[in-house]
Amino acid sequence: MDVSHILDGLNPAQREAVTAPPGPMLVLAGAGSGKTRVLVHRMAWLIQVEGVSPFSLLAVTFTNKAASEMRHRVEALQQMPVSGMWVGTFHGLAHRMLRTHWKEANLPQAFQVLDSDDQLRMVKRVLRTLELDETRWIPKMITGFINARKDEGLRAQHIDSGGDPVQQQLLRIYTAYEVACQRAGVVDFAELLLRTLELLRDNQELRAHYRSRFRHVLVDEFQDTNTIQYAWVRLLAKDKSGQNGNTGAHLFIVGDDDQAIYGWRGARVENIHSFKKDFPDCLMVRLEQNYRSTSTILNAANALISRNDDRLGKNLWTQGEQGEPIQLYAAFNEQDEARYVIDSIKRWLEQGNARSDVAILYRSNAQSRLFEEQLMMDGLPYRVYGGLRFFERAEIKDALAYLRLLANRADDGSFERVINQPTRGIGNKTVEQLRELAKDMNTSMWKAAEYLVQQPGLTARAGNALKGFLQLVESMQQTVEKLPLHEQTEHVIQHSGLLTHYSQEKGEKAEARVENLQELVNAARGFDFHNSDVIEMDMLTAFLAHAALEAGDAQAEAWEDCVQLMTLHSAKGLEFPLVFICGVEEGLFPSERARSEGGRLQEERRLCYVGITRARQHLVLTYAERRRLYGKDYYPMPSQFLGEIPSEYIQDVRFGSGKQVVRNTGSVQQSAGNGIMIGQRVMHQKFGEGMVTNCEGQGSHARVEVNFRNSGSKWLVLAYANLQLL
Ligand code: ATP
Ligand code: MG
Fold it and tell me: Which one of 36, 318, 567, 640 is the catalytic residue?
């Protein structure tokens, strides 16, 4: 058999991993060394050489984008579509299992998935029911608490409060939240994983089924698995003791400890060590050659990450060319930063390059807006991953809530969201009453409403409004039942009154909302629920789950070649010829919080390492000397990470003003220089008091712009201005 198409294009270490005899395997290697490539080739090898049926393969990766790419790459090596294998994210795969085994998992067939925003609303409703004060029991913290416990595999009854009253209250909330979710037939993201784990752990028959089905489980980006995800993988794995007979899968684990960036969300890089302990006979392969980046980029990344301790350590090298230096641009402010980035992109495109080969990366979602505006102004198509994603927009969530209510009347979250959206004269009082009634009757708000309209207690007006709403939902359901998905969506958008409601709003935003609603119909039309395995799930349910799980990816297919915008976190695993990392400033990157906690600072540094290693040929770093963020003005220092990259790899495109990158010390210092920085308050003999808003030039040519309280804004040559620092 000719297997050259699988083995050509692999180096010896990669070949060793791909062709290893079945058994536990750990591929531990740095960025861009071909880990994902090895994993894909391993799958092709198993199918073509070991004769493993695709049906027996399970591959897990971190994002949906990565999962679909993985599937395509296996199919390309196979030269035909491959059906039967499971490829997805942990959440996607867990969802799939729960859909198939909803009964055994004690869920209603039409159960719905809560995204994080829905979850927050749910917690707020629970707090109201328990009559707890939201300012003391902060909903965001509660969801954090609940998710963290679930990620550790713990339900409320497993946790000992140790008599601590705060802990006791948290557990009470957790319990009430679980009851409320169960009653509404909804599961949050963490629940997907926990429920699946419990299902496999407690249901002997199902466990046996999956253990004999999956012969090989392959996990990419293993460094970012959490406790429960690893437990899940172990349940499926072949164990040495033979306790479970000869069933169970061989594990093929791929990861890089230097790219562990989800510790803050419960990921445990220690799982790598545990794996070695749990599977002592595992083969270990290290890949050390980087095929992605120029040596300049790679050396910069290596130098940066070498400042972390507790690394497993590796030596990445490349045969690639040296390439050009990393460009560093010190922007006056965030507008200037966006302008510089987009201008550079335009120049690059003029040379015949593709838009999709450019990525703009940033630490925080809030940073994307300015780039978006600038791109829009210049008519450059772009796409934002993450952020306020398509399915998370208010108008889309409204429409989805109607659809969810059609699928499942017990979904109180959706019920509350749309009962008076658009306004139909159902006031807070009625909603409050329904909430109480549902609680007393131990039923859903929908059922409570059906009951309430039969009772005398409501005013005629409120009663009619409520009746109208119930009838609306019932009649929509009857009409759409047999329609194809996109017509269902269209009908609901129109007849719920949402479309009219948003068309009557004024302004650009409203226009965008209407367009988004129309886009939802398109997304429904294009929704392709192809699954080789039979799952009991109708199109609507599948689409709603997709909206919760795959937020943001809906429009992917329809979009043209466009510039890619995303947070550093979502850039994991990807690569681009030209990469911008923006806002490389103290307080933003590393984030304020990380600066005060040692462990977090190291995680931020890994995030920076991830960012740098996304770039193939060109890397541009930018920071702003003044930034407006979350409605406040900041005058940040350049990030300490900039100082940790040896200067030989960096070319300053525009020197900063008073603030300089502090090189190689690894610590932050207020750079004195001439003592002048943007934001500095100064006194001038003639003009009086003012604030420095801009700086240009160096040494005797240095100029500053000062905004004087009484004389307005002026440019002054620093050497002659004789400014006094205040
Ligand atoms: P990351 O840590 O960022 O996830 P990775 O280790 O998974 O990176 P890949 O994405 O698999 O690395 O590979 C990086 C790049 O190098 C890809 O473009 C890949 O096609 C290329 N590559 C990997 N191995 C080889 C090889 N032996 N010959 C040529 N190119 C290779
Ligand atoms: Mg990879």
Answer: 36
